[in-house]
């Protein structure tokens, strides 16, 4: 009888130890899973923070402004548009270098622009537009061509708004590509009526259409 009791006692102890080990293992597994989730959340947070305030990808929604088209034959915007067209034509030709040159020329054109003739309201709008445009131009100067094209989309919005705000003495065309921006479509300005697509270059050079003529 004592032998039976001894065997039962050993079995009970073994079972208790086994249960404790299982509880311990489950606790450790739960802790490890929580740690992994915390690390994943930290990684997602860091990725979100690193992209805040910066347009890194096509598909980004850019600032929408409501500006009525100014029909004034304004020659003051000529240098800005010329620099923009250098950039646009660089992308059309798949030339990262020429696009960067256009970005440099655009920053120079902004620095030489005479703001003294602007009204208080126009000056405020001009500063808002050019702050955004300069940031895009700076990225275009130092980026690879894919990233240049991403920033060119936002820049095109800015330059279109600037022409609407100040007017121009040039005949220019507002073009649209339905396949740019992840098939959401994107606009650009051109000095020629013929479609030459800066978002795809030689891959789809003639993709797009003229939406309107300015002047």
What does this structure look like?
- This protein is mostly helical and 215 residues long.
- The chain has a domain at 75-214: Four Helix Bundle (Hemerythrin (Met), subunit A).
- Helices cover 61% and strands 8% of the residues.
- The protein has helices at residues 2-51, 78-92, 96-112, 120-142, 145-166, 180-183; strands at 172-177, 186-190, 209-214.
- A three-stranded antiparallel beta sheet has the order 2-1-3.
- α2 (78-92) runs antiparallel to α3 and α3 packs antiparallel against α4 (120-142).
- It is globular and about 45 Å long.
- The model is unreliable at 1-24 and 36-61 (pLDDT under 50).
Q: How many β-strands, per DSSP?
A: 3
> What portion of residues is helical?
55-70%
**What is the CATH-assigned architecture of the domain at 75-214?**
Up-down Bundle
What portion of the residues fall into strands of 2 or more residues? Answer: 5-15%
C-alpha-based Rg, rounded? 30 Å
Note the run of SSEs as H and E.
HHHHHEHEE
Shape: globular
| Main sheet specs | 3 strands, antiparallel
Summary, kept brief:
By secondary structure, the chain is mainly alpha-helical.
List keywords for this structure.
6 helices; mainly alpha; 215 residues; disordered N terminus; single chain; Four Helix Bundle (Hemerythrin (Met), subunit A); three-stranded antiparallel beta sheet
């Amino acid at each position: 009888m004592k032998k039976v009791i001894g065997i039962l006692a050993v079995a009970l102890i073994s079972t208790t130890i086994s249960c404790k080990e299982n509880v311990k293992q489950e606790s450790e597994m739960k802790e490890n899973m929580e740690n992994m989730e915390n690390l994943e959340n930290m990684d997602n947070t860091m990725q979100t923070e690193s992209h805040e305030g910066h347009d890194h990808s096509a598909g980004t929604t850019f600032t929408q402004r409501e500006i009525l088209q100014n029909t004034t034959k304004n020659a003051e915007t000529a240098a800005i548009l010329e620099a923009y067209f250098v950039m646009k034509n660089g992308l059309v030709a798949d030339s990262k270098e020429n696009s960067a040159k256009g970005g440099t020329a655009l920053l120079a054109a902004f620095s030489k622009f005479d703001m003294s003739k602007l009204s208080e309201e126009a000056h405020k709008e001009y500063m808002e537009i050019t702050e955004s445009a300069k940031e895009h131009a700076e990225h275009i100067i130092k980026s690879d061509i894919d990233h240049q094209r991403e920033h060119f989309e936002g820049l095109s919005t800015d330059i279109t708004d600037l022409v609407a705000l100040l007017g121009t003495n040039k005949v220019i065309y507002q073009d649209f590509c339905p396949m740019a921006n992840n098939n959401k479509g994107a606009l650009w300005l051109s000095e020629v009526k013929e479609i030459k697509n800066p978002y795809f270059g030689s891959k789809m050079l003639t993709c797009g259409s003229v939406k309107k003529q300015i002047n």
